[in-house]
Each structure stands twice: as structure tokens, then as C-alpha cells.
Amino acid sequence: LPADFVVHQVLPFQAVSAEPFTYASDLYLALAQPGASSCAVLKWDYVERKLRDFDRIPAHSAVHCKPIVAHEQLYVVVAQLFGGSYIYRWDTTVDKFIKIQDIDSQKTRKPNDIEAFQIDGDWYFVIADSSKAGSTSLYRLSQNGFYSHQALHAWHRDTDVEFVENEGKPRLIISSSSQAPVVYQWNRAQKQFAPQGEVGDVLDVQMVKHFQVKRDHFLCLSRYIGDSKVVRWEGQRFVELQALPSRGSMVMQPFAVGQRRYLALGSDFSFTHVYLWDEEKQKFAKFQELSVQAPRAFRYVPAADVQLLLAPSFKANTLVYRHVVVDLSL
């Protein structure tokens, strides 16, 4: 059946990150809004089928707000460009976010991205640092808070980090503006990440995202200038499958809706292109254009019977698209 992305809701603010999460059986969304100096937390209204304001965390230069639900506690890691970065916890006794700790500003100077994940039952998050003097840092959750666990990849102006678990091996892929993306693999004995190699020949990558089809693993590498790439992971090497022309692309996001696999490639100068994966050709084919100004993320959010695609915009309203399957049988 044919399908389409249509605008479902317009959120009247600019945002640079969007992170869906489920807490106490409800669906929420955390958005970093540098212009409004806050992390906005929205809650999905299942009756009205809309996102509604829920709460705000003050953050005067927020670049990422990362919710982590661990051991039935809700934490939000707030990364700011200036004035340090902080961790908040939702306090159920007073129903508000309480600041519980700050993140060492000597280690994290210009945060750019946060990923959170579990390895062998432990919770971690990693902050990519885009300053020349900082290093991308890994933190681990213990009973009282998150503790600095490992410094990774210093001095490289890192832009993005992606967590991939492939054949039971946890890995981080870190992209940076000064070299090809590097791969780290988790060493279970030492409980640390160790460098494993790089994703060859692709420099100046803004963002790394992965997806899996059956047993194959793929990476999407977005670039601001030149072509963005789709590569297949073949053991120790990466094979380029497709180069997608991109002008001013800060974000390239694969996502699946049911059996369909899509890729959204943003642009600061033209339309966002949505592609659809062709399994036979092992390539993405053009599917639809979306008009989003300066998109900074795309997030697929299944909300009960509605499939949403969130598009935070750096320059205009943030858009919520709905995936609609068109039944032509009538």
C-alpha cells in the first residue's frame, strides 16, 4: 500500500534534539530548546492524540536533553554549550525535576551529542565533546548518581556518538570534524572501550546512525558538504553502498515503520528527502520531500495507533509528521 508523511502537529518553537521516552506507562518527549533556554518535556495525550506541555528544565544553551529511565527512576542529562552540563532526576514526592549533579566542565567543554545504553545490566551515557580541548566522556550509573568512567578520543572535535551492539559486542562509533569516524569495542574484562579501527575514507562526518536488516548492519554517515554515505559493515571493513547528495546536511536518520525502512536526510538549504529502502537493490530510493527548516534531528515515535516522525527545527517551528498508509481499495 502507498504511504505518506503528513503534518500532524506544529510545535511553536525551535528545537535541536528530540528524545522520546516511556515513564510510568506514559509516553513523553524531551526537546532541547536553546532559543527558549530550556529542555521542554511534552506528554502524549492518548485521547486528543497530541503532544501537550508537561514540564520545563531551565537550560540557557541546551544542545541535548537525554532522558534515561533506569531502575524505575527518570533522569535527564542536560548538555549545555555554556555554563556546564547537569543531571536532573524526576522526584515523585514533589512531582518536579531536581538537579542532582553537575558534569565536570573541564572534561566536557562543548557537548554535541549524548547516547545512553546498557551493557551487562549497567547503565551508561556518553557525551561527545566538540571542543579541541575536551574529550568525549563515558559515565556509569551507580546507586547515588552517574560517575565518570572513561575518557575517550581526546582532542578531536567530536560531533556525534552512536552505540551499536553487533553479535553481542557493544561498540561506540564516534564521528569528528578532524578525521574519519572511529570504532571502539567494549572489553568485558576491563569494563572499558578500546579503539578498534575507523570507518575508512569518509571525513567530516556530522552524524553516525546505524540500522540492521536481517543479519546485516549498516551505517548512515551524514556530511554537511559533499555526499552523505550508506555503508555496510562487513566484519573489519565497511563497504560503501550508496552516496546521497547532501547540501548542508546535519542529520541523516534511518527508521522503520512496520516492514518499511526509511531514511530521512535533512538539509539546511533545501528540502528534507525521505528515502525508502529497496531490499533487492540494497539501496534507498527517493520517497518524499518534507519542508523542514534547518532540521537537527528526526525521531520516529510510535504513539499507540499513531506513527509519528518528529522534526526539531533550528530556525522555525518544530514539526510532528504522521505516517499515513493510503488504502486505495475503496
Automatic annotation (TrEMBL):
PROSITE patterns for the chain: EAR
Coiled-coil residue spans: none
Pfam families: EPTP
One GO CC annotation: synaptic vesicle
Matches recorded under InterPro entries: EAR, EPTP, LGI_related, Quino_amine_DH_bsu
Highest taxon in the source lineage: Eukaryota
Transmembrane segments: none
A GO BP annotation: regulation of exocytosis
Alphabetized UniProt keyword annotations: Glycoprotein, Repeat, Signal
Name used for this protein in its record: LGI3 protein
Gene that produces this protein: Lgi3
